[in-house]
Amino acid sequence: MVETYDADVVVVGAGLAGLACARALADAGREVVVLEARDRVGGRVWNGTLSDGRTVVELGGQWIGPTQRRVNALVAELGLETFPTFGEGEHLIELGDRRARYRGARPPLPPWVLADLGRAQLRFDRLARQVPLEAPWAADRAEAWDSVTFETWIRRNVATSGARELMRIYAEAVLAVEPRDCSLLHALFYTASGGGIDALTATRRGAQQDRFVGGSELLARRLAERLGDRVRTGVVVRRIGQRERPGGDGEVRVEADGFVARGRDVVVAVPPTLAGRLEYDPPLPPRRDQLTQRIPAGSVIKCHVAYDEPFWRDDGLTGQAVTDRGPVKITFDNSPPSGRPGVLLAFLEGDHARELGAWPAPDRQAVVVEALARLFGRRAARPEEVVELDWSAERFTRGCYGAHLAPGVWTRYGPALRAPVGRIHWAGAETAAVHSGYMDGAITSGERAAAEILAAR
Amino acid sequence: MVETYDADVVVVGAGLAGLACARALADAGREVVVLEARDRVGGRVWNGTLSDGRTVVELGGQWIGPTQRRVNALVAELGLETFPTFGEGEHLIELGDRRARYRGARPPLPPWVLADLGRAQLRFDRLARQVPLEAPWAADRAEAWDSVTFETWIRRNVATSGARELMRIYAEAVLAVEPRDCSLLHALFYTASGGGIDALTATRRGAQQDRFVGGSELLARRLAERLGDRVRTGVVVRRIGQRERPGGDGEVRVEADGFVARGRDVVVAVPPTLAGRLEYDPPLPPRRDQLTQRIPAGSVIKCHVAYDEPFWRDDGLTGQAVTDRGPVKITFDNSPPSGRPGVLLAFLEGDHARELGAWPAPDRQAVVVEALARLFGRRAARPEEVVELDWSAERFTRGCYGAHLAPGVWTRYGPALRAPVGRIHWAGAETAAVHSGYMDGAITSGERAAAEILAAR
């Protein structure tokens, strides 16, 4: 038995992009159906809980920043509450054989390292501002920037090993890849899209400023509630067909096991590497198909380590640490608004996620806890529990936070990222010009795809 | 109605890898079935014909070289005939504003360019010899070589613009990508795998030495004939499941529309980027899935331009040209053994294939013919016909000649290229250590996968 659903627009994927797209179309009076492979909405935004069943820990995207205007407006409109990421006290930094506590934005590094880092950041941000966000391939120096890796730029432009390590940690923390994995052009685009290095890395006034009371998944759930039974979960889309008929008429046909949705347009709002695995009839043109061969997802395992209380706060620590000793290089205090229980968030990113992803969970978690004990003292060595997620193992994501582009890809395939193919439109955080890779970018990408369709028909 | 087929081993893909694998297994007494999506065997080896219906022009792989021992042995065993690529007379070279005719291996370049090129090649070949073919990630300097693009190496190590252009043409001609698209480690591995720059680029004593009488597809057809009805064409595999049962027993289940094959092992012998699009149950581990997100195919349009006779031979030309003026940078005399009609083969590769692939065929062909007329004179401007194939548009290939790896991929994901995942084994020219990317590598990769299975059960 094949169930058939007719709509004006079929949306594939009920992450924030797909939901925001569907909502914009529904608000404009279009019939819409959203097909989601998982049994939940939200995609890369997903609430987990600790074993108490109550304390929410976000397994995926969780923060929003003050310059992310669209997501902030949506939060207000949907009546959601946010609270600031905990930041009272001193941060920790470990670099080489030095460990230090500090307040504010500038870590207590040797003056020559600080000067080197400052120069590098200034230079990098200045280059980033030259990237046209809607068309990175059109930057004056796009050819040169797309011929080298970000790592090559670091080696040429950063002199001290300390500052080099911090630039590498920047890539890992923001892109979940190593600086060798992406082109300089990609690193510049992503930095520019997010508003610069400071905006991307900061908690106060930066992309990690605010958290959601009740978890970020609420954003997706509230959007989905408004769409009601137009959102169909557990529907694994396999094939998208499109046909034109004389007179400008035509249709799309989106096939899943036991389910077919028909419409006049389709929006594919899943990560690019998964979009490339669907079957298309007629087959996609070479430029688009070869793009999705070259737009892999990053590697991250997000680990929540829970304690009865956030003991580091009593030690005058924010819970935020940066270290060049792997495998954990970045931590945050991720406790709920009440501050009980205490939760430290430890990221395994890039190479470390790739390597530790293959380890048995207890071994991996032991290494994570050991790193926290080194940073936050022996109380950190005895957590109540660890809740972790390796996004590369998620069948319907296959890597986080988002895609990165190797040398040559932005300049040769970039235009295919958003360009519709007939009646197929592309959404998702990766397709956003502004705040690419973030919740804000996901939402605006969905709304942009909706606008494309509303303008066309 | 679902047709079910039971075998010991199910092979996905009837290219040379899949066929060689199936044959080795059948010879060892195993029941085997080969499932091929197309209605023909051969994969990237495919005979076309001119409009006379008789003159074979190979749309894909066509040459074999004297050091490719396995394919040469198979040619002899299957009773196929080869003939030497036409090479009597003078080659053409265009570089900057100079055009010249020459004999032998060394073009008549200014002495400082020749010296620069010679040094670069010597240095590059020397590095290549340090790459362990079975494990490129284990090279002593793998980290450094996998952190930069091949283009970065060229800029650092080649001083003259002429020699730089020739190194770039090397990447295009051998890998069908630009040197910015792959890591230095990949370029070194591929070069080492093929026996060095000279062996890869030469006709005499090189990888372009010999052609097949009747076309290279005969190799696949002869192998398929011996397998008989064990080869099933028109079967588009979509899903591979595997289950273990207590006691070391277990099975694989390979599903296509209306067809299921069951066995104890499966060999996936399709290009890596297509292998990554199948559904696997259970899902593949992160390392393997993320590998196939990062192993794109190159870009090439192979154009045969036919004339009533090979008029360039009368002008004392071999038909072989190298030029730095795109879009055609490499040509060969590809006439049949009889020398009638005359066929010039022009390659569009890398950036040029990507760009011209989106053009209407008549416009693209006009540009190709114009390039040939510039090189071979006005008789080249009036061909009888043009037969071309854009491999990136082929639904069941999606790019040629083979895959290339960007910075970071060999060192972080390389081991997943061949490592079996339970009962799933991987074959295909990309998985070969020796003559990777060539027919010879395809054959040995299939035989290696067969040996894995024979050793296990």
Number of helices of chain A: 16
Can you name the CATH architecture of the largest domain in chain A? Answer: 3-Layer(bba) Sandwich
| CATH topology title of the largest domain in chain A | FAD/NAD(P)-binding domain
Largest sheet of chain A: 7 strands, mixed
Name the overall outline of chain A: globular
Measured as a percent range, the helix fraction of chain A is 25-40%
Largest interface: A-B, 41 and 41 residues
Task: Outline the low-pLDDT stretches of chain A.
Answer: none
Description:
- 2 copies of one chain form a homodimer.
- With 457 residues, the first copy, chain A, is of the alpha/beta class.
- Chain A folds into 3 domains: 3-44 and 217-284 and 421-456, FAD/NAD(P)-binding domain, CATH 3.50.50; 47-66 and 81-87 and 206-212 and 298-393, Alpha-Beta Complex (Polyamine Oxidase, Chain A, domain 2), CATH 3.90.660.10; 109-201, Guanine Nucleotide Dissociation Inhibitor, domain 1 (Orthogonal Bundle), CATH 1.10.405.
- Chain A contains 16 helices and 22 strands.
- The first copy, chain A, has a 7-stranded mixed beta sheet, sandwiched between helices.
- The longest helix of chain A has 18 residues, at 111-128.
- In chain A, 58% of the residues are buried.
- The model of chain A has no long low-confidence stretch (mean pLDDT 97).
- The interface between A and B is large, with 41 and 41 residues.
Brief account:
With 457 residues, chain A is an alpha/beta fold. The first copy, chain A, contains 16 helices and 22 strands.
Characteristic key phrases:
homodimer; 457 residues; alpha/beta; FAD/NAD(P)-binding domain; Polyamine Oxidase, Chain A, domain 2; Guanine Nucleotide Dissociation Inhibitor, domain 1; 3 domains; seven-stranded mixed beta sheet; five-stranded mixed beta sheet; 16 helices; 33% helix
